[in-house]
């Protein structure tokens, strides 16, 4: 039998190096985002950069504790951890503090904690535990429904906190289900539904219904396969038509006013550079002004004069774009792509089904945050208020992503011992 190597020898140091590079880049750019002559030190603990250093130090301690704990602990206690976080999400609805319109925070003195950030790794753990059971067959609808409930429960509770952005993150875990055998047809169905939603906001409903009807008729007339299934095609057409007419109701009655405005600005329905579109407008100016090489560290004028709100949190990428330019932005994007590629590679080499599924959960969550956060700063996605992993300022965010990643690294470190 092979001798067990030490924890340090078994760790994937490439992933850890990428983690530290991203964390350090985040710390430096948080300092740049809040820099002033009165707060010129990276170690000013009364300001965001100093506070972030404390979060970094505690995150390293949390990572160390995770690496010391037996890897089997996380699979054995996946459900209790999930239930605990669900209770915290319910508790914050009752006794939480409202910040920026979202009742998502526990306030303990000057310290704020956001349970939604920890719900991500807890849900990934519970989903991995459920799908890795020996008697689970993902082809059974009961399995798919239960998996969907595991994802939906925390997302629903977070939605009740009026934190739509954090709730949407859980949709990324659908990618885990596709890896485990969910049909790609459902992915195309989801894209079709999203497409209909957008065009229903942009175009006249009668024109859309007419186009759908023409497509249905042509499909039945020109294709023998569809001709035999004309009843199904007709049913799909009627459902699609009903959905198109329901979009306006959902848009006006489910989404908040600021969310509707952001979507309208994104789609070009409204132009509001002084209101709902202000953040994105200023963000584009900041990133564009950086050019190829950027204005230099601490020399960003858009950053220095606070033109972009939330620049050390949700819009931290603006600082990078302005001060480090296209090259700096590209380096950051490549680091994230490298991290995601590495996580997927590690997930595929796992002997444990639990570890593989959890690894895909980690990759899915980080990918969603990375893609949407950068996308919303350059106007490709509506502003939904989610942080850039390891980069944005915030203790709950950094702790949550650190726990998410290092649980996976712990699983990988013992892969040769797991059956």
Write the layout of secondary structure elements.
Layout: H1 7-10, H2 13-34, H3 48-68, H4 72-76, H5 78-95, E1 97-99, E2 102-108, E3 111-113, H6 115-131, H7 141-160, H8 164-169, H9 174-179, H10 184-202, H11 205-222, H12 224-228, H13 230-253, H14 257-267, H15 278-289, H16 301-304, H17 316-348, H18 353-377, H19 395-413
Structure commentary:
- This protein has 419 residues and is mainly alpha-helical.
- The protein has 19 helices and 3 strands.
- The chain has a 3-stranded antiparallel beta sheet, covered by helices on one side.
- Helix 2 runs antiparallel to helix 3, helix 6 (115-131) runs antiparallel to helix 18 and helix 18 runs antiparallel to helix 19.
- The longest helix has 33 residues, at 316-348.
Strand percentage lies at: under 5%
What structural class do the secondary elements suggest?
A: mainly alpha
Number of beta-strand segments = 3
Contiguous runs where pLDDT drops below 50 for at least 5 residues: none
Mean pLDDT, all residues: 86
Number of helices: 19
Order of helices and strands: HHHHHEEEHHHHHHHHHHHHHH
Bin the helical content.
Answer: 55-70%
The best one-word shape is globular
Biggest β-sheet, characterized? 3 strands, antiparallel
Radius of gyration: 23 Å
Give the N-to-C terminal Cα separation: 14 Å
**Strand line-up of the largest beta sheet:** 1-2-3
């Amino acid at each position: 039998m092979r001798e067990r190597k030490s924890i340090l020898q078994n760790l994937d140091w490439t992933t850890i190096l990428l983690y530290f590079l991203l964390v350090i880049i985040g710390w430096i750019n948080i300092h740049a985002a809040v820099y002033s002559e009165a707060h010129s030190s990276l170690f000013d603990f009364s300001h965001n950069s100093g506070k972030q250093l404390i979060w970094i130090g505690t995150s390293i301690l949390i990572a160390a504790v995770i690496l010391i704990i037996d890897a089997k602990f996380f699979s054995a206690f996946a459900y209790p951890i999930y239930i605990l976080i669900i209770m915290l999400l319910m508790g914050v609805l009752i006794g939480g503090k409202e910040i920026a319109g979202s009742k998502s925070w526990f306030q303990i003195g000057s310290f704020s904690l956001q349970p939604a950030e920890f719900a991500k790794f807890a849900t990934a753990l519970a989903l991995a535990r459920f799908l890795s059971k020996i008697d689970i067959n993902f082809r059974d609808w009961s399995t798919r429904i239960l998996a969907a409930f595991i994802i939906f429960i925390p997302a629903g509770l977070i939605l009740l906190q009026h934190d739509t952005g954090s709730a949407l993150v859980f949709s990324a875990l659908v990618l885990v289900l596709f890896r485990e055998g969910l049909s790609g047809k459902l992915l195309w169905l989801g894209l079709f539904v999203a497409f209909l939603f957008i065009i229903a906001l942009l175009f006249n409903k009668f024109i859309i219904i007419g186009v759908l009807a023409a497509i249905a008729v042509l499909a039945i007339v020109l294709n023998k396969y569809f001709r035999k299934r004309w009843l199904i095609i007709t049913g799909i057409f009627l459902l699609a038509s009903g959905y198109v007419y329901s979009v306006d109701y959902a848009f006006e009655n489910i989404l908040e006013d600021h969310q509707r405005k952001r979507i309208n600005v994104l789609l070009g329905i409204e132009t509001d550079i002084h209101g709902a579109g202000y953040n994105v407008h200023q963000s584009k100016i900041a990133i564009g002004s950086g050019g190829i090489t950027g204005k230099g560290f601490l020399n960003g004028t858009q950053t220095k004069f606070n033109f972009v709100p939330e620049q050390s949190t949700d819009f931290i990428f603006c600082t990078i774009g302005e001060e480090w330019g296209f090259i700096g932005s590209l380096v950051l994007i490549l680091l994230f792509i490298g991290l995601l590629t590495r996580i997927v590679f590690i997930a595929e080499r796992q002997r444990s089904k639990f570890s593989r599924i959890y690894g895909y959960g980690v990759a899915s969550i980080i990918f969603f945050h990375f893609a949407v956060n950068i996308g919303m700063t350059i106007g490709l996605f509506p502003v939904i208020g989610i942080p850039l992993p390891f980069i944005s300022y915030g203790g709950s965010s950094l702790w949550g992503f650190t726990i998410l990643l290092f649980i996976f690294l712990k699983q990988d470190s013992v892969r040769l011992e797991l059956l």
